[in-house]
Amino acid sequence: MSPPLIQPTDKGLYCAAGDFYIDPWRPVSRAVITHAHADHARAGSDQYWAASPGLGLLRRRLGPNGLIHGVDYGAPLQFGPVAVSLHPAGHILGSAQVRVEYRGEVWVASGDYKRDADPTCAPFEPLACDTFITEATFALPVYRWPPVASVARDIHDWWHRNARQGRTTMLFSYALGKAQRLLAALPAEHPGPIYLHGAVAPLTQDYRDAGVDLPPTRMVSEAPKEEDYGSSLVIAPPSAAGSTWMRRFRKPVTGFASGWMRIRGNRRRRGHDRGFVISDHVDWPGLLQTIRDTRARQVLTTHGRADELVRYLNELGLQARPLATLYGDDEDNA
What pLDDT, in 10s, does the model give residues 232-274? Predict the structure, then answer.
């Protein structure tokens, strides 16, 4: 029996036939990257291949060292006898699935992905394959996402109420992907200005540079010291909560936007006034639909609820098993 086309090593997921890695967690000579989140794009490798729309984000993540090759979605790559192409994953700007074909066998590594519509990135493209490597971040039946437009309207109404009371609306979300998706989803009429934390602002500019239409924003660091922020919406990463940075805001009302907010106890545990259910990862129905769409004979699961998903798929008669990786389960990035 021939070895698996892609298998985990101490450096990352490795395709020996093509001598390249997918999202390696240690420096390697050739890395194919699914997207620019820190657990998938790590500095130190000699060469990188990634989808062209996310190159600005990836350069910011990886720094000046390392040669980065931009690849159009669907364009053919050749690593020795192995054919590789990148296809939209719908996760964030420039996110990609990696399709690998060798001797008639096709594997697809999804990276992180979602099936919901998102104007800030290309929509997910289902790919037929023999083996599908899928994330399992929210692989439980309880995780079902409401329509994004409805969540955005709830955020907007909450902001309006806070503005009428002269209180700052502080919304915590992951700085890359989630923040920009929220900005794009908000209704056009705002009760006040939108401010961005310093960790969010440059990434948002990368989205604008890539042609994504987003509403006007200001940087908190550029506001005058006497700024009131009373009618403002401030978007910040979760790490800013409870920090000295928060002292400039008078009586802020706080909310957290994440798929984890589907469980009420998570909102209480985090101590926020509101929780909004929105995720850049696939939910349970979308996950099962994707597996059906691939028509894969074998499903390999990574991070999150990998073991639970494997048990469920095995009960359905599919061949499934967990795949050991170092991809993160960061609750702030969900």
Answer: 999 999 999 989 999 999 889 999 999 999 986 565 556 899 9
pTM of the model: 0.95
Specify the pLDDT at position 117: 93
pLDDT digits (tens, 9 = 90+) for 51-83: 999 999 999 999 887 899 999 999 999 999 999
Domain annotation for the chain: domains and CATH numbers: 7-142+280-333 (3.60.15.10), 148-276 (3.40.50)
> What six digits make up the tokens of 25?
């967690």
How confident is the model at residue 64, as a pLDDT? 80
Torsions phi, psi of 34, nearest 5? Answer: -80, -35
| Residue 233 CA from chain centroid, whole number | 22
Please list the residues that pair with 105 across neighbouring strands: 102
Angstrom CA distances, 277 to 83, 143, 182, stand at 38, 10, 11
DSSP 256-289: EESGGGGSHHHHHHHT-SEEE---SS--HHHHHH
Q: Which of 158, 159, 157, 197 is nearest to 178 (CA)?
A: 197
Structure tokens at 297: 């004979």
Burial of residue 63 (number of CB atoms within 10 Å: 0-12, 13-18, 19+):
exposed
Question: Rounded CA gap, 280 and 92, in Å?
Answer: 7
